[in-house]
Amino acid sequence: MQIKQNTGVDTRGMLPVLGGIFIAVSQTAAPWFSVPALKYTQMETSYAVWEWERCLLHIREGAQTAGTKMAGAVLTGSEIGELRVWGHIVQVLAVLAAVLVIGAVLAAYCRRGEAVRCVSLSFAAAMVPPLIAFGAVLRLNLLINEHMGRVSDFVNLSIHSYVQLTAAPYAQFLLAGGLAAAAGYLLCTQEIQRALLCPGAREGRRIKTALVLNLTAIPLLILFGIFFLNNRSYTFISICIVVLAMLPFCMVFENRRPQAREVLLIAVTASLAVAGRVAFFMIPQFKPVSAIVIITGVSLGAEAGFLTGAVAGFVSNFFFGQGPWTPWQMFAFGVIGFLAGILFRGKWEKNRRNRLLLCAYGGIATFVIYGLIMDTSSMTWLIGEFQWTALAGIYVSGLPFNAIHGVSTVVFLYFLADPMVGKLARVRKKYGLIE
Fold first, then answer.
1. Half-sphere exposure of 362 toward its Cβ, with a 13 Å CA cutoff?
2. Number of structural domains, the chain?
3. pLDDT tens digits, residue range 189-236?
4. CA distance 333 to 184
5. Same domain, 405 and 288
6. Phi/psi at 165 (5° precision)
7. Of 75, 118, 282, 318, whose CB count within 10 A is highest?
8. Which residues contact 368 (CB under 8 A, 6 or more apart)?
9. DSSP-derived pairing of the beta strands 164-165 and 46-47
10. What pTM was computed for the model?
11. What is the DSSP letter of 43?
12. Confidence band (pLDDT; 50, 70, 90) for 160?
C-alpha cells in the first residue's frame, strides 16, 4: 500500500472511475442535440438523448412557421419516421453503454489491473452512441438542406448547419476513446515501477507528449469548436485546453504524489500574470502576461509555461470578457511559455547576454507568434469565412498593437527576468519542487 501511495497509482486508477461517472451523467442528463435556428422562437433549442421526438416536433413546427430560418423545410412523414428510428437506436445504445460503463467503473475500482480488458471494451462501446447521434444529425441536416434547396457542403453541414450536436456527445466520444486506449496504463502498476528506473526516458516521453498535445491536439480542438460547435461552446473548449495542458505537467508527478506547494507555485505565477493584465488595463496591449509566462517556462519547465499561459488567458478573460477569442489567447500565451521552456530551461545564468537573448525571444515571440495567432483567429469570429483581402487588412491593422505588445514584453522581461527567475530557482531548490 505504501508503494501505491508513493507512486500515485490510486490517483491514476481513479481516472477511469471519474470518466465513467461523467459518461453516465452525460447520457442521462446532458443535452445532446441543439437547434440554433430556433434560438429566437418560443421553442426549446437543446435536447437530451431522450428528447429526440420533441426535437423533431419543434423542427417541424419551425419549418411551418413563417419568419424562422427553417421556414419551408417541411419534412415528410416517411422522413420523420426514418429519423425517429435513428433516435430509438441512439437511445437503446445509450442505455447499453451506460450499463457497460457503470460495470467498468465498478471493475476498475474493485479489480484494477485484472479488469483492463473489461474496462477497455466498455469504454469502446461508449463511443458508439455519439457516432450514431452524429449520423442522425447529419441525415437530418441533409434532408433540411434538400427541402430548402441548399448545397450540402462541409460548411452547410458544420458551421451553418441547422441542427448540431452539443459539446456533451463529442466530449463523451473523446473521453471514452482515451480511456479505452489508456486503461492498461492507468490500471496496471508494472509500467510505473519501470519508469522509476528510467528517469531520462520518462522526461523524454513527457516532452513528446507535451509537443503532441500542445501543438497538435489543442489547435485541432480549437478548430473543432469552430466548425462543429459553431464557436458557441468556447467555455467548454477553454476548459478542455486547460485539462490538456495539465496532462504533461501532471506527468512530472507520475511516480509520486504532488505536494500542495508545487501546485501552488504554478497558481501563483498564473495569478501574477492575471493581476498584471488587469493592472495595466488602461494601456492597450501593454501587458506583462507574456513576460511572466516566459519566466515561468524558463524557471519551471515547458509544461508549466504552457499551463500558466493557458490558465492566465482563461482566468483574465473573466475580467476582460469571455468569447470565441479566449481559446486562441490561451493557446497563444501557452505556446510562448512552452517554447521558452524548451529553449532556455536549464541554460539560464544571471548575466547581461542571457537577459538580452531572453528579451529578444520575448519580443519576437509576442509580435510574431501571439500576433499572428490572434490576428488569424479574428477571421473566425469577426468575418466567419476566409478571405485573403480581409486577412491582409487584419494583419496590417494589427501591426501597431502587436508592436506595442512585443515592446512591453521586452521591457517587462528586462526588469523582471533576473529577480523572478532567481527567486523561483531558490524556492525550487529549497523545497525540492518540480524537479
1. 31
2. 2
3. 555 444 444 444 455 666 777 777 778 888 888 888 887 777 777 888
4. 34
5. yes
6. -80, 145
7. 75
8. none
9. unpaired
10. 0.68
11. S
12. confident
